[in-house]
Amino acid sequence: MAKSEETSSSSSSRPWESYHTVYTNAKAGMDGVDKEKVQRVVYEMSKGSKYFENEERKEAYMKQKIENMRAQRAKLKPADISHYQRVADKRIAELEATRDLTRTWLHVDMDAFYAAVETLSNPSLKGRPMAVGTMSMISTANYEARKFGVRAAMPGFIACKLCPELIFVPTDFKKYTYYSDLTRKVFQEYDPNFMAASLDEAYLDITNVCKERDITVAEVTEELRQNVYKATGLTCSAGVAPNRLLAKVCSDINKPNGQFLLPNDRAAIMTFISSLPIRKIGGIGKVTEHILKDVFEIKTCEDLLQKSSFFCALFSPSSADFFISVGLGLGGTDAPQVRSRKSMSNERTFSATKDETFFHQKLVELSEMLSADMEKEGLHGRTLTLKLKTASFEVKTRALTLQSSLRSSKDILKHASKLLKAELPVSLRLIGLRMSHFNEDKDGTLSDPTQRTLLNYIKPGDDNTNLVDDEHSDVKDHSESHCYTYTNPSRDPLSELNDNNEQVVEDNGLEDHECKDQLNAVKSSEFDAQGIETHSLEGRNQDQLTMIDFSEKETGSSSSHDKEALIWLEDYKCSLCGVELPPSFLEERQEHADFHLAEKMQMEEESAHAYRNLPLKNRMRQKEAVVGQSKGRKKLKQSPSNGKHIPIDAFFSKASHNL
DNA sequence: GGGACCATTAATG
DNA sequence: TTCCACATTAATGGTCCC
Ligand SMILES: Cc1cn([C@H]2C[C@H](O)[C@@H](COP(=O)(O)OP(=O)(O)OP(=O)(O)O)O2)c(=O)[nH]c1=O
Ligand SMILES: [Mg+2]
């Protein structure tokens, strides 16, 4: 489930109140919790800490972002709005046309999974408040503990304050994977192709079972939960709906040991989501919720549809599609795709230090673990990413891509050390390593995913809904993004030719490459330090930015008068540039209008940068969003239409040897 | 203009 | 007594090099 976040913000005699809904989001097992008290305790325990300060930093960043969007919104003229309303309406119609109510999806979610498993192996824990994790962080808590406000992703020492009786149990992934496997055996009987979303969650397409056995959805769901219980002794909750996005929302409704069914009926769906808080949707987290609420007054999914024009105007096309889809209650219904893992990583936290010998020791350990893990899956990677968390909780990543892929702990360590060296001296509290850019070892499984998509975009009403759905599935079902379709643990042994492929290229252009990357890493480390507010940008860069801003501003301000709303003179000629486009060229006209608007906004925006040092990033920027609309169609997403068949569930097996 | 890389943010469990 | 994990994916946007 979504985790809760803390956030600071002061002012007011009761500072904890402005403490953004810390661990108090309405969640299963949280009824009757004294939220105010929880909030206060968490605040008291947090304030003044390094962690807290970092949270404040992040909060400030977010506020900036919101202000940014507010400004953008304010810039929209009535003409713009009506234009984008038309764009939005069209998109709504297109998306609506992809609605598929023929499938029945079920989402299962085990109740307090880790905690429940621990209780199984130690029944004396039953009925007593317990959390799985450590004093510094707990993974989850049972429902008894939740009554005190104790929740997943809450530091243990805070949980202790909330619930002095709290019992801590260390995590034991072996156990969880074991029980997870048991549940999956049950799932398999209802949908052999079910998607495993995590150890404790899965999506099943139960359309066929219902049909074949001629029983109702309710019966199937009831039976499945019963069978899971019989097989494991664990309870779970389920949600059923015509698509995965909604099914997931539904499984949370009667959370502990319950189920909720949403009929495959458009009216029912619309009613269901109309009052649904957007935060309930997978993919909409704390930040997005805030932006939508503070900038557009959007709280429910219904609001989402009302404000659709803003999305088309200010967000990237993929984001706009996602929001509109949610507003329509659409979600993934297509058959699960087989996805292979994209990265493998490990990281460790320790008490902050500057001891470089210690760092090195950590790198050795991490390299060895990572290497071993990769070997288990027969992977070789080309990109190594070093992750650091400073004593002040700032996170940095430094990556390096090599000519040939590697896996040996020696190689990993060698490059990792180099990356780290460039960052010294620093005081760190965490070091991590990640490998990506996998080569799929030997066994034929092709490597490069040169995904093709485009096709999906061209024709909306096209032949199959699956393709179209697939297209949106990226965005839409963000929560399913790490699902793996299940395959029996019957895979073949590993490779033998592995070592070949890396040796060959070995020494060649390596030096060159590495040097370049090295520079790059150092350079950006100064630059990005990401100091929107307090941090000052590197002088040189700052100047450059400013200069650009001014130059843009001049041209911008002079022409911004001219570039008001676009009108089609005599219904075919552009009032701004004179280009001629007959009324029937709807798409082209829209793109043309977008072009002018983008042009205008870009200038305005850039001139705004001259005043404040605004962050230049974030997907919520309209400049690209608008431009993207015309040409960006192909650029956005694309997903998993790449058909590689590399069944793995390895992700989960890996988790097992991770403490 | 597009591709390869890199860094950061957001989100999920 | 100490004072906030770890694994994974995706989107976005910047830089550099054709
Ligand atoms: C949310 C979260 C979960 N987990 C682990 C522990 C959880 O038992 C497991 C499944 O997550 P959840 O399904 O989110 O939580 P849960 O199963 O413990 O409780 P419930 O579903 O009844 O609300 O994932 C983490 O390790 N870190 C996290 O931040
Ligand atoms: Mg669960």
TrEMBL record:
Basic and acidic residues bias locations: 469-481
UniProt entry keywords in alphabetical sequence: DNA damage, DNA repair, DNA replication, DNA-binding, DNA-directed DNA polymerase, Magnesium, Metal-binding, Mutator protein, Nucleotidyltransferase, Nucleus, Transferase, Zinc, Zinc-finger
An annotated GO BP: DNA repair
Family annotation (Gene3D superfamilies): 1.10.150.810, 3.30.70.270, 3.40.1170.60, DNA polymerase, Y-family, little finger domain (3.30.1490.100)
Region annotation Disordered: where it falls in the sequence: 461-482, 626-648
GO molecular function, one term: damaged DNA binding
Residue ranges constituting the UmuC domain according to the UniProt record: 105-285
Coiled coil segments of this chain: none
Keyword Nucleotidyltransferase appears in the UniProt entry: yes
HAMAP family: DNApol_IV
Protein name: DNA polymerase kappa
Organism the protein comes from: Helianthus annuus
